[in-house]
Each structure stands twice: as C-alpha cells, then as structure tokens.
Amino acid sequence: MSTPPRAGAQRWIVCALLFLATTINYIDRQVLGILAPTLQREIGWSEADYGDIVSWFSLAYALGFLGVGRLIDRIGTRRGFAVAIVTWSAAAMSHALARTTAGFSAARFALGLGESGNFPAAIKVVAEWFPQRERALATGIFNAGSNVGAIVTPLLVPAIVMSAGWRAAFVITGALGFVWLAAWWALYRAPDEQPRLGATERAWITQDRTASDAPVPHTAAAHVRWRALLRHRAVWAFVLGKFLTDPIWWFYLYWLPKYLASVHGVTLTGLALPLVVIYLVADVGSVGGGWLSSALLSRGWSLTAARRTAMLVCALAIVPTITLGRASALWPAIALVAVAAAAHQGWSANLFTLTSDLFPSRAVASVVGLGGFAGAIGGVLFQRATGRVLDATGNDYLPIFVICGSAYLLAWMLMRLLQPRLEPVTLSVSAPE
C-alpha cells in the first residue's frame, strides 16, 4: 500500500524541522573535530588529552539520556525540544571562552547534556506523526541531517577561522540553534493539537495506532517506569546495539580529521573535499537504509525480516573497514570510510525505528534515552582507549579500525540471539515514582 496522493504533507514539514535540528546538532558537535589539529598545535594536547576532552561530551550525553527521554515523555516534544536546543546552542558558543584542556572539557560536557535531547525527541515525534510503514524512511531522512551537518562544518569552519579566528567559529555555529528555535515554536504542534492537519492525513497517520499507543496527557502521572521497560528483551537488544555501534560513529566524527591529518597529511583547508565526499555518501545510506526496510514491509515482508535484513546488509558493508589501518593512499581510504559511514547511517535509521515499531509512543523517548545512555558510555570507553592506543603505538590506527569494521556484525548477531522475533511490547501507565 502506498501513500494516498492527497493525504497531505504536514508530517513531512515536521520531518523537515527534525532534519534541520539534527543538522545543527551535528554542526555544533563536529566543530571541535575540525579544529582539533589546529587547537592541538596551539594548546599542546596529547592524543590522550584529546580523547579525554571528547569523552566528556560522551559522558554528559550518557547522563543526559537517562533523564531527557523521561522528561520529553512527560512534557511533550514541543517544549522538550526547545529546552534541548537552547541548552546545546549556549554550550556550543561557550567553547569560545575556553583556553585550557579543562575549559574545553567543561564546554563539551555542557554540549553533551543539551544534545542528548535531539534524538529522543525526534524519534518520539516520528512515532507520533508517521504510520509504521513510513517511520524508517522518516527517520532516515531526519537522520541524514547528521551527514549534512558533517558536510557543512568543514566547508563553513575553515572560512570562519581564516577571517575571524577559531573562537568565532564556535559562536557563529552555536547561534544557528536559536534561529531554528523560532521556526519550531511557530510551526510545531503535536498531531492532535495541529490545526493545519487535515482529516485525510490524520487518518493516514493513525492507521495502525493501537489502544496502547494512543496519546496520553503529558503529565507526571502518565509515564512508564524504567524497571517496567527493563523487563523486556526488546529494550536490552536496543541498548546492546547502541553500546556496540554508537562509539564507531563518534570515532569518525572526532578522530577522522586527525586521522587524515596525521596519516595522509591533509591540512585544515584541505579537509573539506574528503569530508564532503564521505558525508554525501553517508546521506545516501541514511535515506537508503530507511527506504530498504520500508520497501520490504510494503512488499509484504514481516517486520522482523524487513528490519533485520536491512541491518544485516549495512553490517556486512562495514566489514571492509578493518583494512583501513593499512590503507596507504588517501582516496581508497576515503572510499572505505564513505561506505562505512553510509552503512552506519542505514543501520542507525533502522535501529532507531525499532523503538517506535515495538513500543507505544509515550515510552519511545525513554527507550531511546536508555539506548543513548549505553551508546554514550561505549563512546566514553572507546574515545579514551583510542587516545591511549594511538599514544602507545605512535598513531597506528590498525587496531582501532579492526574494531570499527567488526562491531556491527557482532551487534547484529547478539541482538538476534537476544530477541529472535520483533514483537510489539505492551506497557501500562504508572503513577509517579
């Protein structure tokens, strides 16, 4: 079954807002990675120092995920998203005030707290605004904003640095979030409160909504306890998948410019072309991975077969990354990273969509928060280990890329063992804890 030609486009306007928020999220997140070689020379960081700085973001991101998902489930996505983007935009701008390793660590910590709100809010919005057959595609589209942000950053930041210095790069990019906030507050409402939503599109959105998935008031009396969630294998499978694969994506965001600089001699002004190529290809993977499982569902495949097949294709595409540690030429290395980045985004689109497939919308942000916490803790461990491995081996990236290439296939197998079939979870609303 395909979308009725006149069902309406309001949900896609909402998806566009999510795409823009995710783009800004990744611009703010990646500025430090682009400037890392420059700042490392200016301030004198070791590889371990840099690993520790970026790990503070991951630690705050983890802690933020524990609370932000529940907060958004309670107060709703409109207010919750607004709080998140104000917090992370102010934190992004605060990097301009840092002068020491400790100062950058504090700014990264604040940024991590704010940015932890983006994905729980966005996935919850998708669960509320899209029927099941469109959710992976919608997730893939908004998640493509992460790649667009990663493309824009190396184009924008060097130009700002050359004209106004590196501190201005943090201030200008951080201010973008406040522009988005004005559009969000003016345009966004939940589906049941959106006067521009027509009857036909409303019926399309709610076509497969069950009684347990019906909207509930965003009050302290309408939430799901963590212990109720943690009884279900579906939660643990999602948590495990995030723990094993999120750190790999963050490695690319934070360490790829340093890898290109130290191994292939790429300078700040030369970073743009390789990174643009990588993240353009990653955009294709984000939308393509979501499209693949949605297309399989439309052709009558079961939810389990469609989502798992799409994720397996992505996991297998990443395996060649294990050879990157010995890639001597720049563009073959870029090609391998580009395919891996695309496959990660396809994997991520389907992994995120599992939460809205299996859980009622009032619990989606909480489940995403638990998974985000696990992924961020994995990121803390991997980032700190990466810095120390590189210091100990003289910048030998081989062991790091072996982990990057094998993590997804391992995650796919363990998730399948933990949860052989993907089946909706029934949850009850709890009184306040």
Description:
This protein has a single domain, classed as MFS general substrate transporter like domains (Growth Hormone, Chain: A). The longest helix is centred in the first third of the chain and has 34 residues. By secondary structure, the chain is mainly α. It has 15 helices and no strands. α3 runs antiparallel to α7 and α10 runs antiparallel to α13. The protein starts with 9 loop residues before the first helix and ends in a 15-residue tail after the last helix. 77% of the residues lie in helices and 0% in strands. It is globular.
Q: What structural category arises from helix and sheet content?
A: mainly alpha
The helix-strand sequence is: HHHHHHHHHHHHHHH
Rounded to an integer in angstroms, the radius of gyration calculated over CA atoms is: 21 Å
- What is the terminal-to-terminal distance? 43 Å
Low-confidence region ranges: 1-5, 217-222
How many separate domains?
A: 1
Q: Could you describe the largest sheet, including whether it forms a barrel?
A: none
Helical content stands at over 70%
Oligomeric organization of the protein chains: single chain
What's the number of extended β-strand segments?
0
CATH class division: Mainly Alpha
Individual helix count: 15
